[in-house]
Amino acid sequence: xxxxxxxxxxxxxxxxNRGLKQKQFSNVELIRDFTQRMEQLGPRYNALALxxxxxxxxxxxxxxxxxxxxxxRSPLQGVPFGAKDLLSVEKEPTAWGARPxxxxxxxYPATVIKKLDKAAAIxxxxxxxxxxxxxxxxxxxxxxxxxxxxxxxxxxxWSGGSSSGSGIAVAAGLVTFALGSETSGSxxxxxxxxxxxxxxxTYGLVSRYGAxxxxxxxxxxxxxxxxxxxxAIVLQAIAGSDANDPGSAGKSFYNAPQYTRDINTxxxxxxxxxxxxxxxxxARPDFAKAxxxxxxxxxxxxxxxxxxxxYGALVSTIIAAEASSxxxxxxxxxxxxxxxxxxxxxxLKAGLEMPAKDYLKAMRIRTLVQQALRELLxxxxxxxxxxxxxxxxxxxxxxxxxxxxxxxxxxxxxxxxIQAGNLAGLPALSLPxxxxxxxxxxxxxxxRPFSENxxxxxxxxxxxxxxxxxxxxxx
Amino acid sequence: MTRRxxxxxxxxxxxxxxxxxxxxxxxxxxDEELAAARETQRRNAxxxxxxxxxxxxxxxxxxxx
Lengths: 475, 65
Description:
heterodimer, A: alpha/beta, eleven-stranded mixed sheet, globular, B: about 40% helix, elongated
Protein backbone atom coordinates (compact mmCIF):
# COMPACT_ATOMS: atom_id res chain seq x y z
CA UNK A 1 0.00 0.00 0.00
CA UNK A 2 1.10 3.56 -0.61
CA UNK A 3 2.65 5.54 2.23
CA UNK A 4 0.10 7.45 4.28
CA UNK A 5 0.12 11.17 3.57
CA UNK A 6 0.56 13.61 6.44
CA UNK A 7 -2.82 15.02 5.44
CA UNK A 8 -4.44 12.02 7.07
CA UNK A 9 -3.48 13.36 10.50
CA UNK A 10 -5.81 16.27 9.87
CA UNK A 11 -8.55 14.34 8.07
CA UNK A 12 -12.08 14.03 9.40
CA UNK A 13 -13.77 10.87 10.60
CA UNK A 14 -15.61 10.16 7.37
CA UNK A 15 -12.50 10.56 5.25
CA UNK A 16 -10.47 8.18 7.41
CA ASN A 17 -13.23 5.62 7.55
CA ARG A 18 -13.63 5.83 3.76
CA GLY A 19 -9.88 5.41 3.25
CA LEU A 20 -9.98 2.23 5.32
CA LYS A 21 -12.96 0.81 3.50
CA GLN A 22 -11.35 1.59 0.14
CA LYS A 23 -8.16 -0.05 1.41
CA GLN A 24 -6.06 3.04 0.74
CA PHE A 25 -4.23 2.02 3.92
CA SER A 26 -4.65 -0.65 6.54
CA ASN A 27 -5.86 0.16 10.02
CA VAL A 28 -2.63 -1.17 11.51
CA GLU A 29 -0.61 1.20 9.31
CA LEU A 30 -2.86 4.09 10.22
CA ILE A 31 -2.78 3.43 13.94
CA ARG A 32 0.97 2.83 13.95
CA ASP A 33 1.51 6.21 12.28
CA PHE A 34 -0.85 7.97 14.66
CA THR A 35 0.69 6.41 17.77
CA GLN A 36 4.21 7.27 16.57
CA ARG A 37 3.12 10.84 15.97
CA MET A 38 1.54 11.00 19.41
CA GLU A 39 4.69 9.56 20.98
CA GLN A 40 6.85 12.17 19.22
CA LEU A 41 4.68 15.25 19.51
CA GLY A 42 2.41 14.60 22.49
CA PRO A 43 5.09 15.33 25.09
CA ARG A 44 6.14 18.44 23.15
CA TYR A 45 2.78 19.97 24.08
CA ASN A 46 2.32 18.17 27.42
CA ALA A 47 -0.71 16.54 25.81
CA LEU A 48 -0.04 12.91 26.56
CA ALA A 49 -0.96 11.13 29.79
CA LEU A 50 -0.56 7.55 28.57
CA UNK A 51 0.14 5.97 25.19
CA UNK A 52 -1.70 2.73 24.51
CA UNK A 53 0.06 1.33 21.43
CA UNK A 54 -0.40 -2.38 22.11
CA UNK A 55 -4.08 -2.06 22.86
CA UNK A 56 -4.51 0.13 19.77
CA UNK A 57 -2.62 -2.15 17.39
CA UNK A 58 -4.52 -5.18 18.62
CA UNK A 59 -7.82 -3.40 17.98
CA UNK A 60 -6.57 -2.21 14.58
CA UNK A 61 -5.79 -5.78 13.56
CA UNK A 62 -9.36 -6.72 14.43
CA UNK A 63 -10.64 -3.84 12.29
CA UNK A 64 -8.46 -4.92 9.36
CA UNK A 65 -9.93 -8.40 9.69
CA UNK A 66 -13.45 -7.02 9.77
CA UNK A 67 -12.88 -4.81 6.75
CA UNK A 68 -11.39 -7.72 4.85
CA UNK A 69 -14.63 -9.57 5.49
CA UNK A 70 -16.63 -6.44 4.69
CA UNK A 71 -18.00 -6.16 8.21
CA UNK A 72 -18.54 -2.44 8.48
CA ARG A 73 -19.44 -1.74 12.07
CA SER A 74 -19.84 2.04 12.31
CA PRO A 75 -18.65 5.34 10.83
CA LEU A 76 -16.01 5.31 13.59
CA GLN A 77 -14.57 1.94 12.67
CA GLY A 78 -10.78 2.17 12.71
CA VAL A 79 -10.72 5.88 13.59
CA PRO A 80 -8.05 6.83 16.18
CA PHE A 81 -9.11 8.79 19.22
CA GLY A 82 -7.83 9.91 22.61
CA ALA A 83 -9.66 10.12 25.93
CA LYS A 84 -9.18 12.63 28.69
CA ASP A 85 -7.38 10.90 31.54
CA LEU A 86 -10.41 11.24 33.78
CA LEU A 87 -12.03 8.30 31.98
CA SER A 88 -11.22 4.82 33.18
CA VAL A 89 -9.81 2.28 30.77
CA GLU A 90 -9.74 -1.18 32.32
CA LYS A 91 -6.38 -2.24 33.74
CA GLU A 92 -4.63 0.95 32.59
CA PRO A 93 -3.51 3.83 34.82
CA THR A 94 -5.99 6.67 35.23
CA ALA A 95 -4.38 9.56 37.10
CA TRP A 96 -7.02 12.31 36.70
CA GLY A 97 -4.12 14.65 35.97
CA ALA A 98 -3.14 14.61 39.62
CA ARG A 99 -0.02 13.36 41.40
CA PRO A 100 -1.90 11.70 44.30
CA UNK A 101 -3.69 9.44 41.82
CA UNK A 102 -0.71 8.45 39.69
CA UNK A 103 -0.80 4.71 39.22
CA UNK A 104 -4.51 4.40 40.01
CA UNK A 105 -6.02 1.54 38.01
CA UNK A 106 -9.65 0.61 37.50
CA UNK A 107 -10.79 -2.83 36.41
CA TYR A 108 -13.70 -1.57 34.34
CA PRO A 109 -13.98 0.85 31.41
CA ALA A 110 -15.95 4.05 31.38
CA THR A 111 -19.22 3.61 29.53
CA VAL A 112 -18.10 6.00 26.78
CA ILE A 113 -14.92 3.97 26.22
CA LYS A 114 -16.99 0.80 26.06
CA LYS A 115 -19.35 2.38 23.53
CA LEU A 116 -16.51 3.57 21.33
CA ASP A 117 -14.87 0.14 21.54
CA LYS A 118 -18.16 -1.33 20.34
CA ALA A 119 -18.18 1.15 17.45
CA ALA A 120 -14.64 -0.12 16.64
CA ALA A 121 -13.01 3.29 17.13
CA ILE A 122 -9.38 2.90 18.22
CA UNK A 123 -8.25 4.36 21.54
CA UNK A 124 -4.59 5.27 21.05
CA UNK A 125 -3.95 7.38 24.13
CA UNK A 126 -5.14 8.92 27.32
CA UNK A 127 -4.80 12.67 27.25
CA UNK A 128 -3.49 15.16 29.75
CA UNK A 129 -5.79 17.31 31.82
CA UNK A 130 -5.77 19.91 34.53
CA UNK A 131 -5.54 18.06 37.85
CA UNK A 132 -8.92 16.89 39.10
CA UNK A 133 -10.49 18.69 36.13
CA UNK A 134 -9.70 21.98 37.80
CA UNK A 135 -11.25 21.18 41.16
CA UNK A 136 -12.99 24.20 42.68
CA UNK A 137 -10.53 26.52 40.90
CA UNK A 138 -6.87 26.91 40.01
CA UNK A 139 -4.45 29.74 39.43
CA UNK A 140 -1.89 28.44 36.97
CA UNK A 141 -1.90 26.62 33.64
CA UNK A 142 0.70 24.34 35.21
CA UNK A 143 -1.95 22.79 37.49
CA UNK A 144 -1.33 19.27 36.19
CA UNK A 145 0.95 16.35 36.84
CA UNK A 146 1.91 16.55 33.15
CA UNK A 147 2.67 20.28 33.22
CA UNK A 148 0.85 23.12 31.48
CA UNK A 149 -0.99 22.31 28.25
CA UNK A 150 1.01 24.05 25.53
CA UNK A 151 -1.00 25.40 22.63
CA UNK A 152 -0.02 23.92 19.23
CA UNK A 153 -0.51 27.35 17.66
CA UNK A 154 2.05 28.91 20.01
CA UNK A 155 3.70 26.90 22.73
CA UNK A 156 4.12 29.96 24.93
CA UNK A 157 0.35 30.06 25.25
CA TRP A 158 -2.04 27.88 27.19
CA SER A 159 -4.19 25.23 25.59
CA GLY A 160 -7.08 25.98 27.90
CA GLY A 161 -8.43 23.47 30.36
CA SER A 162 -9.36 21.30 31.86
CA SER A 163 -9.54 19.06 28.75
CA SER A 164 -6.12 20.39 27.72
CA GLY A 165 -4.69 17.27 26.09
CA SER A 166 -7.92 16.67 24.20
CA GLY A 167 -7.84 20.12 22.61
CA ILE A 168 -4.14 19.91 21.84
CA ALA A 169 -4.27 16.39 20.40
CA VAL A 170 -7.02 17.22 17.92
CA ALA A 171 -5.47 20.54 16.92
CA ALA A 172 -2.01 19.03 16.39
CA GLY A 173 -3.27 16.04 14.41
CA LEU A 174 -2.32 13.50 17.08
CA VAL A 175 -5.77 11.90 17.06
CA THR A 176 -8.81 12.33 14.82
CA PHE A 177 -11.10 13.10 17.72
CA ALA A 178 -10.98 13.19 21.49
CA LEU A 179 -13.26 12.95 24.48
CA GLY A 180 -13.28 15.79 26.96
CA SER A 181 -15.40 16.66 29.95
CA GLU A 182 -17.00 19.88 31.09
CA THR A 183 -18.15 21.01 34.48
CA SER A 184 -18.03 24.70 33.58
CA GLY A 185 -16.09 25.46 30.40
CA SER A 186 -13.67 22.54 30.21
CA UNK A 187 -14.70 21.43 26.71
CA UNK A 188 -15.54 24.81 25.25
CA UNK A 189 -12.43 26.63 26.49
CA UNK A 190 -9.72 24.32 25.11
CA UNK A 191 -11.76 23.88 21.94
CA UNK A 192 -11.76 27.64 21.43
CA UNK A 193 -8.13 28.19 22.37
CA UNK A 194 -6.84 25.29 20.24
CA UNK A 195 -9.10 25.94 17.22
CA UNK A 196 -11.11 22.72 17.28
CA UNK A 197 -14.84 22.06 17.31
CA UNK A 198 -16.18 21.00 20.71
CA UNK A 199 -19.61 19.87 21.81
CA UNK A 200 -20.87 20.01 25.37
CA UNK A 201 -23.90 17.72 25.39
CA THR A 202 -27.04 18.27 27.43
CA TYR A 203 -26.58 17.15 31.04
CA GLY A 204 -27.44 13.47 31.24
CA LEU A 205 -27.24 12.68 27.53
CA VAL A 206 -23.83 10.99 27.80
CA SER A 207 -23.06 8.57 30.62
CA ARG A 208 -20.38 9.57 33.11
CA TYR A 209 -19.97 6.10 34.53
CA GLY A 210 -16.25 5.45 34.90
CA ALA A 211 -15.40 9.14 34.80
CA UNK A 212 -13.92 11.06 37.70
CA UNK A 213 -16.63 13.01 39.46
CA UNK A 214 -15.95 16.67 40.13
CA UNK A 215 -19.50 17.95 40.47
CA UNK A 216 -22.31 15.41 40.14
CA UNK A 217 -24.85 18.01 39.10
CA UNK A 218 -22.63 19.73 36.51
CA UNK A 219 -20.30 17.13 34.92
CA UNK A 220 -20.76 16.25 31.23
CA UNK A 221 -18.66 14.28 28.73
CA UNK A 222 -18.46 15.30 25.11
CA UNK A 223 -16.53 15.15 21.83
CA UNK A 224 -13.78 17.47 20.62
CA UNK A 225 -13.31 17.10 16.87
CA UNK A 226 -12.30 18.69 13.59
CA UNK A 227 -15.84 19.66 12.62
CA UNK A 228 -19.45 19.81 13.70
CA UNK A 229 -20.11 16.81 11.47
CA UNK A 230 -17.53 14.76 13.36
CA UNK A 231 -19.02 15.85 16.70
CA ALA A 232 -22.39 14.55 15.53
CA ILE A 233 -20.92 11.18 14.57
CA VAL A 234 -19.14 10.77 17.91
CA LEU A 235 -22.12 11.98 19.92
CA GLN A 236 -24.37 9.39 18.32
CA ALA A 237 -21.93 6.69 19.40
CA ILE A 238 -21.48 7.82 23.01
CA ALA A 239 -24.95 9.13 23.92
CA GLY A 240 -27.62 7.01 25.50
CA SER A 241 -29.20 5.78 28.69
CA ASP A 242 -27.01 4.17 31.33
CA ALA A 243 -28.34 2.65 34.53
CA ASN A 244 -24.87 3.05 36.04
CA ASP A 245 -25.09 6.86 35.85
CA PRO A 246 -27.73 8.28 38.23
CA GLY A 247 -27.75 11.48 36.14
CA SER A 248 -28.53 9.68 32.91
CA ALA A 249 -31.45 11.30 31.12
CA GLY A 250 -32.48 8.08 29.43
CA LYS A 251 -32.23 9.63 26.00
CA SER A 252 -30.25 8.87 22.87
CA PHE A 253 -28.96 11.08 20.09
CA TYR A 254 -29.60 10.34 16.45
CA ASN A 255 -27.50 12.24 13.96
CA ALA A 256 -30.36 13.31 11.74
CA PRO A 257 -29.65 16.63 10.06
CA GLN A 258 -32.21 15.82 7.38
CA TYR A 259 -35.00 15.93 9.93
CA THR A 260 -34.11 19.21 11.60
CA ARG A 261 -36.06 22.36 10.91
CA ASP A 262 -35.47 24.60 7.93
CA ILE A 263 -32.65 26.95 8.71
CA ASN A 264 -34.74 30.02 8.01
CA THR A 265 -37.10 29.09 10.83
CA UNK A 266 -34.31 28.98 13.43
CA UNK A 267 -34.19 32.00 15.72
CA UNK A 268 -30.75 33.07 16.93
CA UNK A 269 -30.29 35.42 19.88
CA UNK A 270 -27.12 37.45 20.39
CA UNK A 271 -26.00 40.47 22.42
CA UNK A 272 -24.19 43.19 20.47
CA UNK A 273 -22.18 44.09 23.58
CA UNK A 274 -20.53 40.65 23.52
CA UNK A 275 -19.08 41.29 20.09
CA UNK A 276 -18.51 45.03 20.35
CA UNK A 277 -17.22 45.46 23.86
CA UNK A 278 -16.71 42.26 25.86
CA UNK A 279 -14.59 40.84 23.05
CA UNK A 280 -10.92 41.70 23.05
CA UNK A 281 -10.14 44.40 20.47
CA UNK A 282 -7.92 42.07 18.43
CA ALA A 283 -10.72 39.53 18.21
CA ARG A 284 -13.55 41.86 17.28
CA PRO A 285 -13.07 41.89 13.49
CA ASP A 286 -13.32 38.10 13.14
CA PHE A 287 -16.13 37.85 15.68
CA ALA A 288 -18.05 40.44 13.64
CA LYS A 289 -17.44 38.45 10.46
CA ALA A 290 -18.65 35.28 12.17
CA UNK A 291 -21.85 37.01 13.13
CA UNK A 292 -22.28 38.08 9.51
CA UNK A 293 -21.82 34.48 8.37
CA UNK A 294 -24.56 33.42 10.80
CA UNK A 295 -26.84 36.14 9.46
CA UNK A 296 -26.10 35.14 5.86
CA UNK A 297 -27.50 31.66 6.50
CA UNK A 298 -31.01 33.10 6.58
CA UNK A 299 -31.66 32.44 10.26
CA UNK A 300 -33.80 34.91 12.19
CA UNK A 301 -31.42 37.00 14.28
CA UNK A 302 -32.61 38.91 17.31
CA UNK A 303 -31.04 40.53 20.35
CA UNK A 304 -30.97 38.67 23.65
CA UNK A 305 -29.38 38.92 27.07
CA UNK A 306 -29.04 36.65 30.05
CA UNK A 307 -31.33 37.15 33.04
CA UNK A 308 -29.57 38.76 35.97
CA UNK A 309 -28.08 36.17 38.32
CA UNK A 310 -24.68 35.86 40.04
CA TYR A 311 -23.62 33.04 37.69
CA GLY A 312 -20.01 33.02 38.80
CA ALA A 313 -20.83 32.78 42.49
CA LEU A 314 -23.39 30.05 41.79
CA VAL A 315 -21.03 27.85 39.79
CA SER A 316 -18.20 28.47 42.20
CA THR A 317 -20.28 27.55 45.24
CA ILE A 318 -21.74 24.40 43.72
CA ILE A 319 -18.42 23.09 42.41
CA ALA A 320 -16.60 23.87 45.65
CA ALA A 321 -19.19 22.06 47.77
CA GLU A 322 -19.52 19.00 45.54
CA ALA A 323 -15.82 18.68 44.69
CA SER A 324 -14.78 18.94 48.31
CA SER A 325 -17.25 16.22 49.21
CA UNK A 326 -16.00 14.01 46.36
CA UNK A 327 -12.39 14.49 47.43
CA UNK A 328 -12.93 14.47 51.19
CA UNK A 329 -10.79 11.32 51.57
CA UNK A 330 -7.96 13.01 49.64
CA UNK A 331 -8.20 16.08 51.86
CA UNK A 332 -8.43 14.04 55.06
CA UNK A 333 -5.41 11.95 54.10
CA UNK A 334 -3.27 15.04 53.60
CA UNK A 335 -2.37 13.89 50.09
CA UNK A 336 -4.27 16.88 48.75
CA UNK A 337 -1.05 18.80 49.40
CA UNK A 338 0.59 16.81 46.60
CA UNK A 339 -1.50 18.68 44.03
CA UNK A 340 0.41 21.13 41.85
CA UNK A 341 -1.75 24.21 42.26
CA UNK A 342 -1.83 25.96 45.66
CA UNK A 343 -5.13 27.62 44.91
CA UNK A 344 -6.79 24.31 44.13
CA UNK A 345 -5.46 22.78 47.36
CA UNK A 346 -6.85 25.67 49.39
CA UNK A 347 -10.14 25.65 47.47
CA LEU A 348 -10.71 21.98 48.23
CA LYS A 349 -9.94 22.45 51.91
CA ALA A 350 -12.14 25.53 52.21
CA GLY A 351 -14.97 23.79 50.36
CA LEU A 352 -15.27 21.23 53.16
CA GLU A 353 -16.04 24.07 55.55
CA MET A 354 -18.85 25.52 53.46
CA PRO A 355 -22.12 25.78 55.40
CA ALA A 356 -24.90 23.61 53.99
CA LYS A 357 -27.09 26.69 53.72
CA ASP A 358 -24.75 28.23 51.14
CA TYR A 359 -24.76 25.17 48.91
CA LEU A 360 -28.52 24.79 49.21
CA LYS A 361 -29.04 28.46 48.48
CA ALA A 362 -26.97 28.12 45.33
CA MET A 363 -28.93 25.06 44.26
CA ARG A 364 -32.24 26.79 44.94
CA ILE A 365 -31.20 29.84 42.94
CA ARG A 366 -30.13 27.42 40.23
CA THR A 367 -33.79 26.38 39.95
CA LEU A 368 -34.62 30.01 39.15
CA VAL A 369 -31.79 30.12 36.61
CA GLN A 370 -33.17 27.07 34.86
CA GLN A 371 -36.65 28.58 34.76
CA ALA A 372 -35.34 31.90 33.47
CA LEU A 373 -33.27 30.26 30.73
CA ARG A 374 -36.24 28.13 29.73
CA GLU A 375 -38.20 31.33 29.26
CA LEU A 376 -35.35 32.97 27.34
CA LEU A 377 -35.08 29.94 25.06
CA UNK A 378 -38.81 30.00 24.39
CA UNK A 379 -38.19 33.13 22.36
CA UNK A 380 -35.06 31.97 20.53
CA UNK A 381 -33.73 28.56 19.53
CA UNK A 382 -30.05 29.33 19.89
CA UNK A 383 -27.93 31.81 21.80
CA UNK A 384 -24.67 32.81 20.17
CA UNK A 385 -21.68 34.51 21.78
CA UNK A 386 -17.89 34.42 21.65
CA UNK A 387 -16.80 31.19 23.35
CA UNK A 388 -14.02 33.20 24.98
CA UNK A 389 -13.59 36.96 24.61
CA UNK A 390 -10.12 36.56 23.13
CA UNK A 391 -7.34 34.12 22.35
CA UNK A 392 -5.42 31.88 24.73
CA UNK A 393 -3.37 33.62 27.43
CA UNK A 394 0.33 33.07 28.03
CA UNK A 395 1.03 29.99 30.13
CA UNK A 396 2.72 32.05 32.82
CA UNK A 397 -0.26 34.34 33.31
CA UNK A 398 -2.00 33.78 36.65
CA UNK A 399 -5.57 32.94 35.72
CA UNK A 400 -7.02 34.98 38.55
CA UNK A 401 -5.23 38.22 37.76
CA UNK A 402 -6.14 40.82 35.13
CA UNK A 403 -3.62 42.05 32.59
CA UNK A 404 -5.78 44.86 31.30
CA UNK A 405 -7.23 47.90 33.01
CA UNK A 406 -10.13 48.03 30.59
CA UNK A 407 -13.29 48.15 32.72
CA UNK A 408 -15.93 45.55 31.85
CA UNK A 409 -19.07 46.77 30.11
CA UNK A 410 -22.08 47.52 32.29
CA UNK A 411 -24.35 45.44 30.06
CA UNK A 412 -23.73 41.78 30.78
CA UNK A 413 -25.10 40.56 27.45
CA UNK A 414 -24.46 36.83 27.12
CA UNK A 415 -20.95 37.04 28.53
CA UNK A 416 -21.70 34.50 31.27
CA UNK A 417 -23.17 31.99 28.82
CA ILE A 418 -20.70 29.25 29.76
CA GLN A 419 -21.67 29.36 33.44
CA ALA A 420 -25.37 29.89 32.76
CA GLY A 421 -25.49 27.09 30.20
CA ASN A 422 -23.76 24.68 32.55
CA LEU A 423 -26.00 25.57 35.47
CA ALA A 424 -29.06 24.84 33.32
CA GLY A 425 -27.58 21.71 31.71
CA LEU A 426 -27.83 23.17 28.20
CA PRO A 427 -25.89 21.83 25.21
CA ALA A 428 -23.34 24.07 23.49
CA LEU A 429 -21.15 23.89 20.42
CA SER A 430 -17.88 25.82 19.99
CA LEU A 431 -16.89 26.63 16.41
CA PRO A 432 -13.54 28.09 15.33
CA UNK A 433 -14.36 31.43 13.71
CA UNK A 434 -11.10 33.27 13.08
CA UNK A 435 -7.89 34.47 14.66
CA UNK A 436 -6.63 37.17 16.98
CA UNK A 437 -2.92 37.75 17.48
CA UNK A 438 -2.35 34.66 15.33
CA UNK A 439 -4.32 32.47 17.75
CA UNK A 440 -7.68 30.79 17.16
CA UNK A 441 -10.89 32.28 18.48
CA UNK A 442 -14.35 30.74 18.47
CA UNK A 443 -18.05 31.34 18.82
CA UNK A 444 -20.38 29.21 20.90
CA UNK A 445 -23.95 28.22 20.19
CA UNK A 446 -26.13 27.15 23.12
CA UNK A 447 -29.65 25.79 22.88
CA ARG A 448 -32.45 24.06 24.72
CA PRO A 449 -31.82 20.72 26.40
CA PHE A 450 -31.50 17.95 23.80
CA SER A 451 -31.40 20.39 20.88
CA GLU A 452 -27.99 19.11 19.73
CA ASN A 453 -29.26 18.48 16.20
CA UNK A 454 -30.23 22.14 15.85
CA UNK A 455 -26.85 23.34 17.10
CA UNK A 456 -25.07 20.90 14.82
CA UNK A 457 -27.14 21.99 11.83
CA UNK A 458 -26.03 25.58 12.33
CA UNK A 459 -22.49 24.36 13.01
CA UNK A 460 -22.35 22.34 9.79
CA UNK A 461 -23.72 25.25 7.80
CA UNK A 462 -21.21 27.63 9.38
CA UNK A 463 -18.40 25.27 8.43
CA UNK A 464 -19.54 25.01 4.81
CA UNK A 465 -19.19 28.80 4.65
CA UNK A 466 -15.86 29.11 6.52
CA UNK A 467 -12.65 27.11 6.65
CA UNK A 468 -11.27 27.96 10.10
CA UNK A 469 -11.93 24.41 11.28
CA UNK A 470 -9.59 23.16 8.55
CA UNK A 471 -6.66 25.39 9.46
CA UNK A 472 -3.61 23.72 10.90
CA UNK A 473 -1.17 25.04 13.47
CA UNK A 474 2.43 25.61 12.37
CA UNK A 475 4.33 22.36 11.88
CA MET B 1 -5.57 38.08 29.89
CA THR B 2 -8.15 40.71 30.73
CA ARG B 3 -10.77 40.91 33.42
CA ARG B 4 -13.31 39.87 30.84
CA UNK B 5 -11.45 36.67 30.10
CA UNK B 6 -10.79 35.98 33.72
CA UNK B 7 -14.47 36.05 34.55
CA UNK B 8 -14.85 33.00 32.36
CA UNK B 9 -11.63 31.08 32.93
CA UNK B 10 -11.88 29.54 36.36
CA UNK B 11 -14.90 29.59 38.62
CA UNK B 12 -12.97 30.74 41.64
CA UNK B 13 -11.53 33.62 39.68
CA UNK B 14 -14.94 35.13 39.15
CA UNK B 15 -15.25 36.87 42.40
CA UNK B 16 -12.11 38.90 42.19
CA UNK B 17 -12.99 40.32 38.81
CA UNK B 18 -15.10 43.34 39.50
CA UNK B 19 -13.71 46.68 38.41
CA UNK B 20 -14.34 48.36 41.72
CA UNK B 21 -12.16 45.94 43.64
CA UNK B 22 -8.42 46.23 43.80
CA UNK B 23 -6.57 42.97 43.46
CA UNK B 24 -5.10 41.61 46.65
CA UNK B 25 -1.53 40.38 46.32
CA UNK B 26 -1.05 36.71 45.46
CA UNK B 27 -1.00 34.57 48.61
CA UNK B 28 2.54 33.79 49.73
CA UNK B 29 1.98 30.51 51.54
CA UNK B 30 -0.56 27.79 52.25
CA ASP B 31 -2.12 29.67 55.16
CA GLU B 32 -2.70 32.72 53.04
CA GLU B 33 -4.10 30.57 50.24
CA LEU B 34 -6.58 29.00 52.62
CA ALA B 35 -7.58 32.39 54.01
CA ALA B 36 -8.09 33.66 50.45
CA ALA B 37 -10.22 30.63 49.56
CA ARG B 38 -12.37 31.16 52.63
CA GLU B 39 -12.75 34.82 51.73
CA THR B 40 -13.83 33.84 48.22
CA GLN B 41 -16.50 31.58 49.65
CA ARG B 42 -17.66 34.30 51.98
CA ARG B 43 -18.01 36.75 49.09
CA ASN B 44 -19.84 34.14 47.05
CA ALA B 45 -22.32 33.67 49.88
CA UNK B 46 -22.77 37.43 50.05
CA UNK B 47 -23.66 37.59 46.38
CA UNK B 48 -26.10 34.71 46.70
CA UNK B 49 -27.74 36.37 49.69
CA UNK B 50 -28.74 39.28 47.47
CA UNK B 51 -30.93 37.10 45.27
CA UNK B 52 -34.62 37.29 46.05
CA UNK B 53 -35.54 33.66 46.60
CA UNK B 54 -39.20 32.62 46.99
CA UNK B 55 -39.67 30.35 50.00
CA UNK B 56 -41.18 27.57 47.91
CA UNK B 57 -38.17 27.29 45.61
CA UNK B 58 -36.62 23.86 45.91
CA UNK B 59 -33.02 22.98 45.07
CA UNK B 60 -32.35 22.08 41.45
CA UNK B 61 -31.96 18.33 41.50
CA UNK B 62 -33.64 17.38 38.23
CA UNK B 63 -31.76 18.08 35.02
CA UNK B 64 -33.75 16.07 32.55
CA UNK B 65 -35.06 18.98 30.52
